[in-house]
Structure formats: C-alpha cells, structure tokens
Amino acid sequence: MRYRQTGLWSHETERATPGFTLIAPLQCDGVHLIGMNGEVRHSWQTPSKPGNYAYMLPGGHLLWSGELATGPNPGGGKGGLLREYDWDGNIVWEYEDDHQHHDFRRLSNGNTVYIGWEKMPVDAKAEVQGARLGSEDQGGIIWSDYLREVNPSGDTVWEWHAHEDETLLAEPLHSMSTRKEFAHCNSVAEIPGGDLILSFRKFSIIAIVSKETRRVRWHRRDDSWGQQHDAEMLANGNILLFANGIHVETGVYHSRIVELNPKTGEDAWVYRGSPWPSFFSPNISGAQRLWSGNTLICEGLPGRIFEVTPEGDIVWEYVSPWFGGPWQGGQINSVFRAYRYEANGPEIEGRLGAVL
C-alpha cells in the first residue's frame, strides 16, 4: 500500500497543536519523534520491529514492546519483550513474556500491566458463543486473554483472566469472527481510581475491570463500532475510542472516532471522514485527545496520522514514510498508534528545543 506522497501533507500553524509526534513503524525497527513539519528530531534504535508500538514516560524515557519469535500468535499484535529506554537509548528496565500481545501500560504506582494470551480451559470453551463453528485453532484451542501486573523487579502482583468473567462469557462473538480467540483484548489503560479500561475486538465491547474484585464492573457493547481499538478515558469522564467499522451494516465500510458518555450511553462527539470511506482502517489504529481540545488520529493500516479540530477540520496531516514487510505480499507503512507530546511537557522536558 503506497500513497503517492509520504511525509507531511498539510499543516495549519494557527490551528494545529504544537508538539512532537512519536511513531513506531509497525514493520520496521526504530522509534521516531517528528516535528510539526515532518522532520525527524530524535530516534531510538530497537532490536526488532515493535510488538505494536511505544510511548513516552516522564523524564525522556520510552516504553516499547518488541516481537519475540517464540510463543503463540493466534490473532496478530504479538509482542513479548517489554523494554524501557532512557533518552540516550540505554536499557533501564526489561521484562519478557512471549505470550504478551497488543498493549502494556506503566501504572501510577510504578508497576506495569500488560495483555497476554492463554489457552481456555475445557469448561470455559464450552461456554463460548457465536463465531464460526469449527474455526478454533489447531487442536481445538481457543485462546483467551489475561492481564498481568508486574512490579519493577518483575514479580507478578495482580492478574485477571477473561475466561473467568461471567459478563464476557455471556456475550457472543461476532458471527464473522473465528473461534481462535475469545475476546481479543487490544487495549488496556488505567483510569482514575486505579481500575482498568479494556477494548475487546471480538465482540465490540468496552469494559472496565475492578482491580479489587477482578470482575467487569461496567461494559458497553456496540456492534456499530466494528471491532474497535484504543479505549481511553478522558479527563471529563468520557471514553474515546477508534471505531474501525468492519462487519457493520452501514452499507459502506468507514471508521469513526467516538467520544462516548458512559453514564448516558450517548455519543458526545464523533469524527468521520468526508466522504465517509475516505477515513478507514479495518484494524489497529487509535486516537489521542490533545491538550488544545483537538484530536490526533492514527489511521493505522495506511500509516496516516492527522489532527482534527472539534469541528472536524483537518489541521495537520502526515503519512509514515517507513515501509517494511513482507506483509500480505508486499511492503506496508502501518502504524499501530501515534502520540503527540508538548515540547516542555514532562516527557520531553525541553530536550528538543522549540517546535519548528
């Protein structure tokens, strides 16, 4: 998949949010901070392509996941190697679990939580509803998800297992899905109070898991999201997510960014492309609400990253120039997620000087 032009497409300096954007190309090694004009301002060298993505921590550190060759990979998003780098690329923390996939977060207590795959027990498999019968993995395996929290020493201090939660077991998988995986958790994030918000692709569910009870305490299913990604709770208590828009009944596939009010169940804000099909990624992808009120969107499959105003105007647009593969018979420039950071914020702390 190639655009005719990569790099910066447009930049409205008066309305775009100044900062540096972090990109971890999905099929290449290396992580890059780019300026508003698309220029690379800083990079970290990594030993492999990412286990999806990376993001910055305070003090100029980077938390990154790399893809290991061992362990299962039933549904994409494989990682396995978690590493924290300092600004100069030195490894300051490392943890391995070759069942880790998709997402990982540094928590407010200094621990790290991540998603992993595990085989469903026989009794739990019998309760899985929906999807295409006979489409389990080899040997009839259905892979479920777990969350594991580890402290800086690598000790496990908390776990949660999707197949043990009655709320999720009561939900049927999408009819178009395979039964290789139950749930397919693709994002985890901490919310105020310490509970965790999760996104489950296989049945278009957003859920909040209580750290105390280890049970889903709130969830919302909306098949119109079309197997969403990247659920994040905003400062106003609403939930921002990337609605991929596959296996839906709209007549034409297209993606949306949805800001959901979890108390009312109503959409507080929605972004669509114009026309709708001009914005579409069937997998990966994410969105970040910026400090200006604008939203940074990562249209993951085609590697397009752009910023929109609350009115939906595009004020900054960039296409990743980093291609790798092979993927589906060719080279691709996909990006799982992208994040923007303030020049003098706690992550960069002025290390790159002014935003050009």
Q: Kindly provide the radius of gyration, computed on alpha-carbon positions and rounded to a whole number of angstroms.
A: 19 Å
Arrangement of strands in the largest sheet: 1-24-23-22-21
Structural class by SSE content: mainly beta
User: Major sheet: size, sense and barrel closure?
Assistant: 5 strands, antiparallel
Overall, the morphology is globular
Helix/strand order: EEEEEEEEEEHEEHEEEEEEEEEEEEEEE
| Helical residues, percent | under 10%
Report the total helices: 2
Terminal residue distance? 30 Å
In round numbers, the mean pLDDT is 97
Low-pLDDT ranges = none
User: How many E strands?
Assistant: 27
Strand proportion: 35-45%
Question: Could you explain how this protein is built, in words?
Answer:
With 356 residues, the chain is mainly β. The protein has a domain at 1-98 and 319-356. Helices cover 2% and strands 43% of the residues. The protein is built from two helices and 27 strands. The chain has helices at residues 122-125, 166-169, and strands spanning 7-11, 20-25, 31-34, 40-44, 50-57, 61-67, 80-85, 91-96, 100-106, 112-119, 143-150, 156-161, 185-190, 196-200, 205-209, 216-221, 229-233, 239-243, 256-260, 267-272, 286-289, 295-299, 304-308, 314-319, 324-327, 330-332, 335-341. The strands form seven sheets. Strands 1-24-23-22-21 form a five-stranded antiparallel beta sheet, with no helix packed on it. Strand 13 and strand 14 (196-200) form a beta hairpin. It starts with 6 loop residues before the first strand and ends in a 15-residue tail after the last strand. The mean pLDDT is 97.
